[in-house]
Amino acid sequence: MAGGMVSSGDGVGKNYPGKLTVSVIIAAVIAAFGGLIFGYDIGISGGVTAMPSFLEKFFPEVYKKQIGAQSTNQYCKFDSQTLTLFTSSLYLAALVASFFASYITRRFGRKLSMFFGGLIFIIGAVLNGGAQNLAMLIVGRILLGIGVGFASQSVPLYLSEIAPYKYRGSLNVGFQMMITIGILVANVVNYYTAEIAGGWGWRISLGGAAVPGLMIVVGSCFVPDTPNSILERGNPEKAKAMLKKIRGTDDVDEEFNDILVASTTAREVKHPWKSLKARKNRPHLVMSIFIPLFQQMTGINVVMFYAPVLFTTLGFGANAALLSAAITGGINVLATVVSIVAVDRMGRRFLFIEGGLQMLIFQLAIGVLIGSKFGTTGVAAIGKGYAFAVVACICLFVSAFAWSWGPLGWLVPSEIFPLEIRSAAQSINVAVNMLFTFVVAEVFLKMLCTIKFGLFFFFAAFGLLMTLFVYFFIPETKGIPIEEMAKVWEDHWYWKRFVLEPNRKSATNV
């Protein structure tokens, strides 16, 4: 059976009236601020761990290795369990928080979940900026992680529900766009704060996370709630009025009735977590696990939150490393724009497959370049030609992620789940994402020290696996109303055996 044996995804007989209104655009932009807190943290943590003053205060053993860099294996000079804990603790906290966020999101709505996440994130940022010891630093990171967990659980759902189905992909990619902007801003902030005399610039970098946190807190107070969420909480009149408002038309009966049917089904499900295990929800459960797993096993976080550390390992000076990280952050933003333009035109599958293959190629290239220069000893000087080649390959790798697995890893799970399991399934999606972000953060420095340049071949292998997974198992979902998504599973060559009742046959030959 070929992976191409899936439905086209160009609609399923529905053509809801309405348009992309200004209020929806504004709401989508404000909600996407939730991505800023995630992106800023990814960018800022890698930068401050490359600042000597920060390392000297909190991680003196790493600082001593840096001082003796000329006689130290480049692959191992950042290998420290406490330094790893600083980076990875956030993602473990986000994993746990995502399960609590599921209840808040379902019971009280997406808006409150975004507000609460932003508020906790601000507190964590203040603690980090004023940290006097490692314990204070780690507690702040844990609070940041709780904020990220809530935002990552609620924002993609909000964007998918509020957007007209024809523009759902482009608007949902706004979440990833804000993540990339957050990374870029963090890299630029790190570059300048590293120059502050007295070595206290890292406090501005870490404390600055309160700004995107404040943006999502204030923004969540003004965005409208989604009709899906209002219905889920039992207020059909208000939900219909909201749907008319955000669609810019009174002719919303067909879309509202579809949402109402989904909401009625959702209220009948008393235990959404148990329902996730039902046979008909098998494809949704599989996607909620494997899409975020593969997204993190691209190796992107090795590049993004360890970029300055990675560039320093390759022989760049501290400032040059921060500048190179800022360049990759800029590429990340620009390439995400490609996804916004292309996702509702070219489709999810095309971007998934092209991006996966491009990442595979350039992970291999990075491994070859680093291996041929440093070998296994890790002791060598890197010339300008090699430095340019490594940065170029990293930029091409980042660009592929930014228009494929980056945004689609959040978009596709948020649009495929039925309303009755949507919050629970999204929590699985976020939890798996954060689990493997935590795992990568926890083991990267140790793996770099142990298997050296082979680390990039390791991630390249996952590039091949994820591309095959998309080809065979992920159907096209562009142009399909979110409450009509069941059709793509019924028409899929493999998943139809799970979602179709024994006495039914798919209406489409596949």
UniProtKB/TrEMBL annotation:
InterPro entries, per the entry: MFS_dom, MFS_STP/MST-like_plant, MFS_sugar_transport-like, MFS_trans_sf, STP/PLT_plant, Sugar/inositol_transpt, Sugar_transporter_CS
Main location: membrane
CDD domains in UniProt: MFS_STP
Keyword hit for S-adenosyl-L-methionine: no
Membrane topology (UniProt): Multi-pass membrane protein
Localization annotation: Membrane
Gene Ontology CC entries for this record: membrane
Molecular functions per Gene Ontology: monosaccharide transmembrane transporter activity; symporter activity
Ranges of residues in domain Major facilitator superfamily (MFS) profile: 27-478
Pfam families noted in UniProt: Sugar_tr
Keyword Flavoprotein: no
Domain of life, per lineage: Eukaryota
Keyword entries, A-Z: Membrane, Sugar transport, Symport, Transmembrane, Transmembrane helix, Transport
TM region positions: 20-40, 83-105, 112-131, 137-159, 171-194, 200-223, 285-309, 321-343, 350-374, 386-412, 451-474
SUPFAM superfamilies (alphabetical): MFS general substrate transporter
Family (UniProt): Belongs to the major facilitator superfamily. Sugar transporter (TC 2.A.1.1) family.
PANTHER family: SOLUTE CARRIER FAMILY 2, FACILITATED GLUCOSE TRANSPORTER, SUGAR TRANSPORT PROTEIN 12-LIKE
Name this protein carries in UniProt: Major facilitator superfamily (MFS) profile domain-containing protein
Organism from which the protein derives: Stephania japonica
Taxon lineage: Eukaryota, Viridiplantae, Streptophyta, Embryophyta, Tracheophyta
